[in-house]
Specification:
The protein has about 260 residues and is α+β, with helices and mostly antiparallel strands. The protein has one domain (about 10-250). Helices cover about 40% and strands about 10% of the residues. The protein contains eight helices and eight strands, in the order E-E-E-H-E-H-H-H-E-E-H-H-E-H-E-H. It has helices spanning about 35-60, 85-95, 100-115, 135-145, 165-170, 195-200, 220-230, 240-250, and strands at about 10-20, 20-30, 35, 80, 155, 155-160, 215, 235. A two-stranded antiparallel ribbon has the order 1-2. Helix 1 (about 35-60) runs parallel beside helix 8 (about 240-250). The N and C termini lie far apart (about 45 Å). The structure holds iron/sulfur cluster. Iron/sulfur cluster binds near residues 75, 153, 160 and 165.
């Protein structure tokens, strides 16, 4: 039974192997069909539980994560969002009280100006034209070298922490934090993950995981929204969509030929 005025919910229980551990959890999902954007809070909760299990295992094997509250050294990086996350973050900003919203939008404008001055704005506008991993890596280095913080970074902390994108959730540095201000592949080591939820989301716009990779730089959030406002989201029952997401983590085994 659900309370009057509340939308009906269903519970989804799952059990998943993470290395030598079994992760068991119950998620409370809407009973109604949902868009990927609406399922994101549940996917974030699931990813956080999974990533915590990975962190514990890393610690047990002697790897220490150097990321700490109050360290935002990595928050000047190019952050790729799935389209559902771009929609959700744009809505989050639009629903902020006016002074706060204006402050954040002002930071987005400043970031755009810096990217335009550096010749990076246009190059990042059409991410489908950037299929080459090496090109993306080089653009990422150029972007970071500008030293412009994410519009959501405040006092070296993420001001939207519960809503931060998947890419930010799964970034764990294992090398000394002192190297993060001037990172290079030799000095900054990142915890390798058995699964990258962010990359699943880039192909999950259809709620099934069959789409081509589509991502939006966080810096281009509002520019992208202006150009895609009329897109209709795919709606699926939440349990079915969540199951589709899990299948991307552990694709079903093919029967032996
Ligand atoms: S969203 Fe938050 S965690 Fe991610 S880059 Fe911005 S400030 Fe950092």
């Amino acid at each position: 039974m659900h309370e009057p005025g509340q939308l009906p919910r269903v519970e989804a229980q799952f059990r998943l192997r993470v290395g030598n551990r079994t992760l068991e959890a119950t998620l409370n999902l809407p009973a109604e069909p949902v868009s990927v954007e609406e399922l994101l809070p549940a996917l974030y909760a699931f990813a956080d539980a999974y990533l915590e299990a990975v962190r514990i295992q890393a610690r047990e094997s002697g790897l220490e994560i150097s990321c700490r509250p109050g360290c935002g050294a990595c928050c000047a990086q190019l952050v790729p969002l799935s389209e559902a996350e771009a929609l959700r973050l744009a809505r989050l900003v639009q629903q902020m009280p006016a002074p706060r919203r204006d402050q954040i939008l002002g930071r987005f404008r400043l970031l755009r100006q810096k990217l335009e001055d550096a010749g990076l704005w246009e190059r990042l506008r059409d991410t489908e034209a950037l299929p080459d991993l090496e090109v993306r890596r080089r653009i990422g280095i150029e972007y970071f070298s500008l030293g412009v913080p994410c519009p959501f970074l405040e006092n070296q902390s993420c001001s939207i922490y519960p809503d931060r994108p998947m890419r930010c959730r799964e970034y764990f540095v294992t090398s000394p934090a002192v190297h993060c201000a001037d990172p290079s592949p030799e000095t900054v080591k990142v915890l390798p993950l058995p699964v990258k939820f962010s990359e699943i989301l880039y192909c999950f716009g259809d709620g099934r995981g069959f789409e081509n990779t589509r991502w939006v730089p966080l810096s281009h959030l509002f520019d992208w929204l202006e150009r895609n406002e009329t897109r209709q989201p795919v709606l699926l029952p939440a349990v079915e969509m969540f199951r589709n997401f899990l299948v991307q983590i552990a694709p079903p085994r093919q029967p032996a030929a």
